[in-house]
Amino acid sequence: MRISRLAELDDNSIISADIVIVGAGPAGLTIAEQCSGPDRKVLVVESGEELETSEHSALNEVENIGELQTEAQIHKRTKFHGSQARFWSPDVQRYGVRCRAFGGSTHAWAGKSAPFDELDFKARSWVPHSGWPMDYQHIIPYLLRAMDVLNLSPKQPPGRFDKEGLHSFYWQFARSRIDRLDIMRFGQEFLARRPANLHVLLDATVRCVGLNREGSKFSHIDVVSLGGKCARINATFCVLACGGIENARLLLASNDVCSKGIGNHFDVVGRYLMDHIAARVGRFQTDQIAELTKHFGFYGLHHEKRAHMFAHGLAPTPEVQERDQVLNAAVFFSTERAPDDPWVALKKLLNSRSSDLGRDLLSVVSGSGFIARGIGMKILSDTRTPKIIKDFFVNGAILLSPNLVAEEFQSRGLPHKLSGLRIEAICEQAPDPSSRITLSDRKDRFGVPLAKIDWRIGDLERKTLLRIAELSHQALAGAELPTPILESWTRDRPQDLVIIDMAHTLGTTRMATDRTKGVVDPDCRVHGVDNLYVAGGSVFPTSGHANPTLMILALAMRLADHLNLKVVRNSAYQTS
């Protein structure tokens, strides 16, 4: 793999490639590696550097005219997203969380992965605009390949709950192959593996996508560095894999040939903007944690000499969704840190930020066991600790005590004192054409209009969250398990919910066989443009409730297979 920077090239350089991929996130890098070959030039173009920088992150600015504007939403977004991405700011990213760097969203994600349900692919009479142009069975082989990329087990833990129309649902965590105590970071994985026959161009922000005069074929992309160096990249095929916001923005802003934007003859680009809708359902008392974590804690599973970690939640059956006319959803259980957590107290003392010196000293002394355990975890994460020792201890710990390991994964190796358990709900968002991305009158430093976000949340999402809260309480009671103290909004006041985006931007270049209803066809090719493709969650017709990365990679695998066939046929045509 060869890595270069646009700033190192001559100004106004002309670069040629067989396939150019815009975006070095999970989708873009997966397609690049699957399509690479000794007689083929695959070029990945990334706006950022290996790591995030403040200057590149400033290019993520959006204008927001929809949700997320109340004081409560802004506060909740800052608390929820603020610790995920190093340079994220609610003033710049007023919607979404984007990481403009090599590895993309995996700089900020939690590694949480799950496949979509079979029902997610079907047209549902109670969910407008639902249905995929493919079925679940078709996608299964690609899901299995995507699981291998994400270091996931294809085996699932056994179902352990079935009550009141709720059944077991499992999320799995994508573990790093490099750092045994971290989740997978695509940038680090690629830099360590350095797959052959790949070219990566960093600090190269795309200003526009070029078509031929008829608008029927992709011809080039124009890129610029932060320092102002420009280049044109000509390629036989192009894949836009730069996220749900940027994919739509680039298509809309590239309007020199098609005045409404590429693929936008029927005003569909940017529409059907979706995210996942989440809310806290309730909480349990401290003395109930042990019993509930036996049922709904983390689960270790051994597969092919590796231990894999799952989180156990509950989801409504397809029959309940149809009966109650609700969206797909799930609940999961999340621990709360105690106010006298020793690691928090130690951090305050070391940074001279303690407001109560005596209390924080007492917390550190009384929590010395937690701190000692944390030091042990830091030793395991040290690069000087032999790999065989790390694997032995981490894999063994996952199988013997997955809840302990999960807490340390989430806290980056620092075990915390817990004070309670929350039950959280997450649901899909119904596709809505009025929820959309358009172009702002404001422009970025390169003259490209900002994305204007008009994200809308409907009544069906609130109804779904309310119903799954009720079902969860009934199901736990029916199983003679502790029931949560429900939040006040569940008492028939879903309008009181403070809803924020979950950084799962989906749907803005949706897939459809009918070009009047979608931006790309079932092969992810932009309708009407022979050699331009889109990858990522923006092509999803519906969002499911599961975290989208696994499905994104499954579709990326599928697109890579399609591109490989197209490249071979194109080469054969040229030599004949």
TrEMBL record:
Pfam family, one: Lycopene_cycl
Gene Ontology MF term list: oxidoreductase activity, acting on CH-OH group of donors
Xref: InterPro entries: FAD/NAD-bd_sf, GMC_OxRtase_C, P2Ox-like
Residue span(s) of domain Glucose-methanol-choline oxidoreductase C-terminal: 431-556
The keyword Oxidoreductase appears for this protein: yes
Membrane spanning stretches: none
Cofactor: FAD
Keywords per UniProt: FAD, Flavoprotein, Oxidoreductase
Signal peptide interval: none
Family named by the database record: Belongs to the GMC oxidoreductase family.
Name this polypeptide is given: GMC family oxidoreductase
Organism: Ensifer oleiphilus
